[in-house]
Design goal:
single chain, about 190 residues, alpha/beta, four-stranded mixed beta sheet, 9 strands, binds guanosine-5'-monophosphate
Length: about 190
């Protein structure tokens, strides 16, 4: 079994993916956590270079031209998001990789990089209302933004069945979510 793998965390907004990854980063798991590029605005509490590099649209398009992305997408109908190809393929020699991306990005990677050892982990919760309340706790969104998240949510659910793993994220049970993800990673990498 190939030891190092690319674990792609997918699932609707507000389900706890980002928080879970932050917690996993604090463990001693031997993992590379690639920083993606995005053209969306930095939120309060976000740190440049932690999860994203926040760049301008023209800078992003320059990177597209230079073929620097493993995949890139316009997410929720507005901003570019893209994963850096070089850092991911290089780090795979020494460790597994863990990154959250959207389902269109996953489809793209699976279609165009079938040689890569990809494992998809879908995180979900029981319904849309639970997600809205969690999203609004994080940062209140306007109606248009919420509608875009809802459309993405419906598409995301369709992808659930095609994922390698599905993990349910219950309110206030982030420890369980983290444990489930780590268990999957350890199983898959024989760690
Ligand atoms: P947020 O703006 O809330 O941080 O993320 C919005 C969406 O963008 C999430 O569904 C997240 O999974 C996705 N995303 C984050 N980074 C990437 C990336 O590098 N590529 C793609 N395709 N999607 C990403």
């Amino acid at each position: 079994m190939q030891k190092h793998k690319i674990f792609l965390i997918i699932g609707p907004s507000g389900v706890g993916k980002g928080t879970a990854i932050k917690r996993i980063k604090e463990t001693d798991l031997n993992m590379f956590y690639p920083v993606s590029f995005t053209t969306r605005e930095k939120r309060i509490n976000e740190v440049e270079g932690e999860t994203y590099y926040f760049i301008k649209k023209n800078e992003f398009e320059e990177k597209i031209k230079n073929n620097e992305f493993l995949e890139y997408q316009i997410v929720h109908g507005t901003h570019y998001y893209g994963t850096d190809k070089n850092s991911i393929t290089e780090s795979l020699k020494d460790s597994s990789v863990l990154r959250e991306i959207d389902i269109a990005g996953v489809r793209d990677v699976l279609q165009n990089n079938s040689h890569l050892p990809i494992v998809t982990i879908f995180i979900t919760t029981n319904n849309w209302e639970t997600l809205v309340s969690r999203i609004n706790k994080r940062q209140k969104m306007n109606g248009k933004e919420l509608e875009q998240r809802k459309q993405s949510y419906q598409k995301e659910l369709e992808f659930m069945e095609k994922s390698n793993y599905v993990v349910y994220s219950e309110e206030n049970k982030i420890d369980d979510l983290v444990t489930s993800i780590i268990t999957i990673i350890k199983q898959e990498t024989n760690a």
